[in-house]
Amino acid sequence: MTPQLEIIITACIVSTACVIPGVFLILRRVALMSDAISHAILMGIVIMFFIVKDLHSPLLMIGAVATGILTVLLTEWIIQSKRLKEDAAIGLVFPVFFSIGVILISRYAGNIHLDQDAVLLGEIAFAPFNRFLFLGRDLGPVAMWSMGAILVMNLGLLLLFYKELKLATFDKALAATVGFSPVLLYYGLMTTVSITAVGAFDAVGSILVVALMITPPSTAYLLTDRLSRMIVLSVLIGIASAVSGYVMASLLDASIAGSIATMTGAAFLIALFFSPKQGLLTTYLRSKHQKTDFASKMLLVQLMVHEDQQEDFETTVTHMVHHMDWSIKFSKKIARYSVEKGYITRNQDQLFLTPLGREVARAAIVH
Amino acid sequence: MTPPAVAVKDLTLAYRDTPVLWDIDITIPQGVLLAIVGPNGAGKTTLIKAILGLLKPAAGKVEILGKPYQQQIKKVGYVPQRGTVDWDFPTDALDVVLMGRYGHLGWFKRPGKKDYALALDALDRVGMADFASRQISQLSGGQQQRIFLARALVQDAQIYFMDEPFVGVDAATEKAIVTLLKELRKQGKTVIVVHHDLQTLKEYFDWALLLNVHQIAIGPVEEVITSDNLRKAYGGRSAFFVS
Amino acid sequence: MDYTIFMVMIGSSLVGCVSGALGSFAVLRKQSLLGDAISHAALPGIALAFLITMAKSPMIFMAGAMIAGWIGTMLVMAIVRHTVIKEDAALGMILSVFFGFGLVLLTLIQRLPTANKSGLTHYLFGSAATLLLEDVKAMCLMGVVTLAGLFLFWKEFKLFTFDKDYATALGFPVKRIELILTLLTVTAIVMGLQTVGVILMSAMIIAPAAAARQWTDRLWLMVVLSAVFGAVSGLSGALLSGFVAQLPTGPTIVLIMSAIVLISLLFAPNRGMIWEWFQRRQETKLLRQKLMEKHKS
Fold it and tell me: Domain limits at A168?
């Protein structure tokens, strides 16, 4: 395998592993916990490193996960105490752990390869240098295998607890009454987020972890509201961002993690404008049409009411302007639309309901 | 001829393509105590918000004392629903009441002695004079509602809009509010209240607007609250109220 | 006194003071984490400002940061208003994607032959020690403008934060008020980036206000206390990191601030947890006494 291919595969594995817990983070409206956890784990990694003196020890992972859980616990404790609101509580805890981590690094770890840049920004380009050797055979980069293991774990948990997660995400109360503890599931999810963030940190850095956990699932959310489809779409969008991000980075000779994050953003922007259901452009066009259609119905109702009262002066375009407080341009547009639809006929300034128009007006009133 | 307190002409308001208010056409004379009643989701709060310019209608216009709202702001007092603000906000009762003067003060100017005097007087009128320096989170629901009423009183308006002032308040507060309403009417003010208790309607108000997306009826309470109209507004559920 | 430490002290306390004052409103509006998004979003702005002008001037960097931070804020608001995406996800996306894009630009700048690139990476983690007189002057200007704005629009900001609908009904243009308040917040955040860095800047916005809220029920006192807490943390953090080797300024300031928050949460009169625990014990005692007396008679 060429180093390039190894980097791309690693990036895709990282992206898929991040996206799966990410879907539930955004649906449960706790997306920013990924930001908090991925920064806070720095402290756990550093403290464990001082204990075991080995950058590749699995104990580092345990220290980091413990810090992640501690972050969640502390944040929840502050919220429960009712002294501060949720947003402030989230924003207070992780900077403390991150600061402790940074201070420990700069005071005591000056000479070893453990710096804040690496944690935060990561450098996936270095992934192929660290080989996984098994029985004397080179099996590829370590990052690929460690993230692969985390991905398998996340997939396994997803399949195992899909029903429970779905229920607890959409209906906490019901989940609790049928015996799935939402608290347990919440901490389970947060543990998964912590493990994934730790695994990904030295490959891609914590910022890309945040980008991958939040952005592809949000993009998918714009495209579908079915949970299963949302997960599949998120995975696909994540992989597409990883591959295109790598291509962009090699073309520009720029940061790979930064490029992948940028690409997740680009994917979101495309969905933001063009999503068939949610897109800004599509909803703008639809709401414009709805506005016209709605205004036309208002006109029909007016005409019908005054038809009964036999006041013919009410049925002119000029009167629409006055009566509905519409602009002349808008009134003309509505009249034209109604004629096109066959709701009314027009004789100079006078408007007359057609039988179809009368039916539509009656339906609108009952509505 | 005096202009009507509120004139709503062909007001229609929709959320996307679902009409929330449809072709509302009402004239409210000056000096009445009017209750807006109707089932949940009838658009009662929406109507008030549309009159006050907080929501943009799809068609129609509103006049307050014969002119658009933007020219009559100082003649209108507003009591929003109590639940719409965060009562843990760091401030005291007097300070909230003073906010009623902000419209008269305009940009940059701070409340002066006269404003403080007016605010204390308003607190007294709602029976909250002893609570002026009390932190607002330490007030009961009824007391918070009275603070909101006092805040509208210092606006020194001609027309008052109140959104569900009787919800979640104690009996004493309900009584205090009713007394205040009668007092305001005696002074010739117009008061428009979103209300949902048909039982107390006749006792508290003299006019009613029955609403359910469409306007069902408007006029003196006796004329509006007929079993026929109630059936139109509430469907089958109305029989319970009329008995 | 050492010139560098002096600059750092002035700069840090200024940052603490201004972000503390403006942070009060962010916390009360439940928008604490917007600061996190704004500070991260500022990074590509700084990089682009350098790429376009090729000059290393704090004023130009801050202008770039402000524009990018502003665009980020607008995007968060637009996403929340027009789609199903909730605020937390919108903030997280803007934060990470803008920051990622900033990284791409930074790596591009590092490959430029013009050596004039040092200084940009200071914004990532903050580097108070590199503050020059020129930087402090720019910060002073921004600080004065921000605090003056807060003073000038005090009444409007208070009304808007407490009851937006009521402000509209009174005839105040709430959109404009929100715009001004957001602009001032962006300014306060951008001002602190060089000192504490992109990642920790949000703590400067949240922590002093969160601590101040526990001590008082008056808005003006909360804002003043918050500014004081911020300034004291900034000053002591700068001093400490000036005299202890290898102690970075930004994280030190954040830790001091967080200690103040913890003390406030526990010991503040009325709202403090220890205070409440003590109060409750007192009450149970009284109740028990009353019951005993009743029992006897």
Answer: 3-278
A323 shares a domain with A210: no
Identify any residues that bridge with B211 across adjacent strands, giving them in sequence order: B215
**Residues whose CB is less than 8 angstroms from the CB of residue C167 and which lie 6 or more positions away in sequence, other chains included:** B102, C156, C159, C160, C174, C177
Do A265 and A313 sit in the same domain of this protein? no
Record: contact C170-B96, CB cut-off 8 A? no
CB–CB contact C218 B86 (8 Å): no
Residue of chain C with shortest Cα separation from B80? C166
* Chain B CB contacts of C174 below 8 Å: none
Looking at the fold, whether A206 and A289 belong to one and the same domain comes out as no
Block residue for tokens 């897109």: A279
- Alpha-carbon distance values, A196 to A153, A208, B200 (Å): 10, 12, 60
- The residue segments making up the domain with residue C25 are 3-296
Instruction: Give CA angle at C273 (C22, B143), nearest 5°.
Output: 70
CB contact under 8 A, B92 and C172: no
Pair A8, A126 in one domain = yes
CA distances from C92 to A91, B196, C23, C35 (A): 12, 42, 19, 12
* Selection from C161, C35, C169 nearest residue B86 by Cα: C161
Quote the CA–CA distance of A63 and A69 in Å, as a whole number: 10
Number of domains in chain A: 2
CATH number of the CATH domain containing A35: 1.10.3470.10
Determine, for residues A81 and C96 on separate chains, whether the beta-carbon distance falls below 8 Å: no
User: What residues in C contact A78, CB-CB < 8 Å?
Assistant: 265
Based on the fold, state whether residues A200 and A308 are members of the same structural domain: no
- Which of B73, B99, B135 lies nearest to residue C171, judging by beta carbons? B73
The label of the residue with tokens 């000053």 reads: C235
CA distance B215 to chain C (A): 24
Nearest chain A Cα distance for residue B113, angstroms: 34
Task: Give tens-digit pLDDT for A11-60.
Answer: 999 999 999 999 999 998 899 999 999 999 889 988 988 888 777 777 88
Local structure of B64: helix, strand or coil: strand
* Domain shared by A197 and A323, yes or no: no
In this structure, are A293 and A190 located in the same domain?
no
**Domain boundary, last residue among A251, A278, A305:** A278
- More confident: B88 or C129: B88
**pTM of structure:** 0.86
Lowest-pLDDT choice from A93-97, A294-298, C37-41: A294-298
Asked whether residue A259 falls in the same domain as residue A335, the answer is: no
Distance in angstroms (rounded) separating the CA atoms of residues C190 and C143: 11
Q: CB A298 to CB B23 under 8 A?
A: yes
Distances (CA, A) of B10 to B192, C239, C297: 19, 68, 73
What is the CATH number for A323? Answer: 1.10.10.10
CA pair distance A109, A107, nearest whole angstrom: 6
Residue ranges in chain C assigned as alpha helix (H): 3-28, 34-53, 58-82, 87-110, 122-125, 133-152, 154-162, 164-169, 174-215, 219-243, 249-267, 273-296
CATH number (domain holding residue C273): 1.10.3470.10
> What value of ipTM does the predicted structure carry?
0.90
Interface test with A, best of C40, C81, C85 (most A CBs within 10 A): C85
Number of domains in chain C: 1
Q: In whole angstroms, what is the distance from residue C234 CA to residue C8 CA?
A: 9
